[in-house]
Amino acid sequence: MSVYSFVTNWSFDAMLERVWAEIEDADAWPDWWKGVLNVELLKDGDADGIGSIRRTTWKSALPYELTFDSEVVRIEKHELIEVRAFGQLEGRGLWSFSTDNGRTDVRYDWTVVTNKGWMNLLAPIAKPIFRWNHDVIMRWGEQGMRKRLSS
Hints:
Radius of gyration: 15 Å
Strand order of the largest sheet: 1-7-6-5-4-3-2
Structural class: alpha+beta
Largest sheet: 7 strands, antiparallel
Number of helices: 3
Shape: globular
Order of helices and strands: EHHEEEEEEH
Helix content: 25-40%
Distance between the termini: 42 Å
């Protein structure tokens, strides 16, 4: 298994509540985030969404798809959302939010290991390509969010 750690930063001229609502509503990601093919709710969480589990299928810039489950393990409203990933990827994702003068900054920390044999086999030479691919998908998310916020 290879460990991957990624940090993504987005910044929007939008109110925190609006940006938060779009990220929190993972079921709607396929509507605006290129690369998110499907989100399926597997288990409801509590009133805040903690404990909910979703299966998400991602289509990357490269010719493969990844499907994994994410369980919401922590929410601090308008500050952070933490998930535990398992399946074809295992690890942790943390969305962090901050705001200043109507501008909202979002940081996503994603630390995972791959469980696909071919990915682990190719990791010694393909790790930079996988990093590039992750960055492409996150750029798609940022672009989709910008369009979503402007409508």
